[in-house]
Design brief:
With 268 residues, the chain is of the alpha+beta class. 32% of the residues lie in helices and 27% in strands. The protein has two domains: 11-119, no CATH class; 126-232, Gcn5-related N-acetyltransferase (GNAT) (Aminopeptidase), CATH 3.40.630.30. The protein has helices spanning 11-14, 21-34, 73-86, 101-109, 142-152, 160-169, 215-229, 244-252, and strands spanning 39-43, 46-50, 61-64, 93-95, 114-124, 173-181, 185-195, 198-206, 234-240, 256-264.
Length: 268
């Protein structure tokens, strides 16, 4: 979703007044490990992530991690903008409940649009009984997974190498799930990242031809089952706020919202 012509959400609308900040910090940390950038730089508590060859906003953004770190906002943003330009990127800030209110006010006053509004959801796995077996096992072929993900997501094939590089760089244990149909080929994919007691559901996608046929439910169940059997107590995932079908699927499975985030960038 893009909404560059829309006014940005206020700090309260992102949910900073009601969320549990320790939970946000932990999910942010595991999220960075689950989707690693090729270049990582800290400016105070601002985490600057850049990745050449892949357009993911999560991999190319400034991520403030401490609401009290708001010194020299303008100077530091200008410095970050130069770093982004060196990588051929436009400066982008990922605004979460950890973003200092002063920084949000700075972006508001400068008229920075908001886009890519997303939700972070979580599900308690500890009390769910998935049984001891697995109906669907993860695959080992990263290239095959990448091909399927790009095909289902209708993304450019040229980004395959970058996607494989990101997956190969994930340090926690991963499970690559791929559903296929003999006639239409790949139908659904998900990447599960097991990090201590958490399981992150990434790259979850279902082909248009098989939506509303139970494929998404089956894929989600297989992903959660694998994470639980590996020892995860809680599952988490990120989804764009305008993806109503996916959000409905996740809520029916028991996921609930933990916090929201949005991207901000200077007016072009």
């Amino acid at each position: 979703m893009t909404s560059n012509d829309r006014q940005p959400d206020s700090h309260a609308a992102i949910g900073a007044a009601t969320v549990d900040l320790p939970s946000v910090r932990r999910l942010e940390a595991v999220g960075f490990r689950a989707w690693p950038a090729t270049s990582v730089h800290y400016d105070g508590s601002w985490l600057i992530r850049l990745t050449t060859g892949h357009p993911s906003k999560r991999l190319n953004s400034v991520n403030p991690l401490d609401p009290s770190d708001y010194r020299d906002i303008g100077i530091r943003l200008e410095k970050a903008a130069r770093r982004f330009a060196e990588h051929g990127r436009v400066l982008t800030v990922r605004q979460t409940p950890l973003t200092p209110p002063q920084m949000i006010a700075h972006m508001d006053e400068a008229g920075w649009p908001a886009f890519g509004r997303s939700l972070v959801l979580a599900l308690d796995l500890a009390e769910r009984d998935f049984g001891d077996g697995m109906d669907h096992l993860p695959i080992k072929d990263v290239g095959r997974f990448a091909d399927a993900r790009l095909l289902i997501g209708k993304e450019e094939p040229e980004s395959k190498e970058a996607l494989i590089g990101i997956i190969d760089a994930i340090k926690p244990e991963t499970g690559l799930f791929l559903f296929e149909d003999r006639e239409i080929g790949p139908t659904a994919v998900s990447l599960v990242v097991h990090d201590n007691d958490l399981a992150g559901i990434m790259q979850f996608a279902v082909a248009e031809a098989v939506r509303r046929q139970g494929v998404g439910n089956a894929l989600l169940d297989a992903s959660l089952r694998w994470g639980r059997l590996r020892g995860a107590k809680k599952a988490w995932m990120q989804v764009e706020a305008d993806n109503e079908a996916a959000i409905s699927l996740y809520r029916k499975a028991g996921f609930s919202e933990v916090y929201r985030y949005v991207y901000r960038a200077p007016k072009v």
